[in-house]
Amino acid sequence: PTHVETHRAMATVQCKLFYTKADGVQHHTFLRPQTEADEKIDPTPAPRVPVETTILDARQCASPFELDEVSFTLVPQHTSLTTAEFYQDESKIRLVYYKEIAELLKRETGAAHVVVFHHQVRNNVRAGAFGQETPVQGYAGSVHSDASPHSGRKLFLSMMNGDNIKQYGQGRFLYINAWRNISTTPIANNHLAVCDERSLVKPDDYLLSTLHGKEYDTVQYNLDSHHASRHKWYYYPNMTKDEVLLFKQWDSDPELSGRVCFHSSFEDPKAPRHAPPRESIECRAICFFPDHKPNTCPPIPQQVYSPDGAASKMLQAVQLISGWPESGKEWIHAVMQHQSGPTIIMEALLNDEDGHFGLKNASDADRDKVRQLLVQRDFQMVLKQAYAGMIAAEDVLPTEHDSAETAARPASEDHPAVSATNVDASVHKILAAIQTLQFWPQDAQRWVRTSTAREGGALLVLEVLLMDKDGHVGLQGASKERVAAVRKDLLERNFESTLKNAVAMLSIE
Questions:
Q1: Could you report the per-residue pLDDT of 114-147, keeping only the tens digit for each?
Q2: If I label 404, which of 76, 151, 265, 267 is the partner at 20 to 30 A Cα–Cα?
Q3: Model-level pTM greater than 0.70?
């Protein structure tokens, strides 16, 4: 045999994939405890059957697979996140990595707009209890899809919450998954197998099932084992951190041959005995193609006002301000410089000029109900945390304008105010302020205590201090470069530990 033939033989894997045996029942899987409303639902899982399967090396095919033909494809992309950050920095995943994936999907699919809305890190060694929704989960070792026509359309409609987004409410939408190795070591086992949808028997092979998670119920597909011998399975061996496997969850265009991708993790019987555990992240996103003809999107129903729904949508919108248009972020930044900034922003959202939250034509009494709910749910704290994250993200990912401006600035204009003396002075003032926390006003102490108790809260306190609205630490009106230098120095001096120690002393007193 030739070298290529030998490589193909070595890369092909013979192993068991776990299909579903059709029994005429739509099965349910619970990732949360069953509620009273679920009492009549039988939680018996779908009957799984192991099927000996040949999984081919997709890298050795004559030409690359096309997403719209087979429902998956492999694309190159570098990420700025380190392996540790994928485990430890949830905010950076949402603020930085989501933006990277959105840009990738726009490039690869031609979408006019992309919303990345969920991610999951997987590592069997570091996973929590099986069947629970944890920050790190194990591998999904049975053949399934993550969506169906019903759940795909439901997801699409859930995005149609404002006049601006409704410009994407026609044409075509694509619910898609972006799957990446997050380790610097290539994946050696527990690869992801993907099925060429053209090899499936439709509609015979598609078995509806429902996944019940925290605050959601999703209708998806299992794959019937009856025609398993006809199915063509592929994988990409030795995936690196600079590669992303894209595969479809649901595509609204009925003319395409690749609309949904069945997939499964699998163990390679010939993998090295001491192969490291696979470390991966998957991001879910929805891509919008408003110019597609004919329209394949479901009709958008008229919004029904609900105080609870409006409040929830506002809080969700605020949590995602880092993804707002630049004009919106600039407005947030300007308003947050004022002491009453959070209140001004809340009232602007309640006014709902663009109809994002169903309050555009609401009465004053209805708005007041939502206002009370926002206060109860700590709107100001949510906003301050999101704003701190937005500022941090802008430091990590400067705009093209910022980069060009920095490159064009003469050396003599290199912010003379950014001197070691000025930086040290501000650092010492902030640390001194934290160490004398017990002398702060009571409401300020409560805010620091509450913030620090939350995940990422210490960083929020740091960002608020760096804003220096009252000029206490010498940073009022300071350049971004000087603020960044102070932030870096404080983090290197264990600011978070100093803050938590000061808060602990408050508790003792």
A1: 999 899 999 999 887 555 556 899 999 999 999 9
A2: 76
A3: no
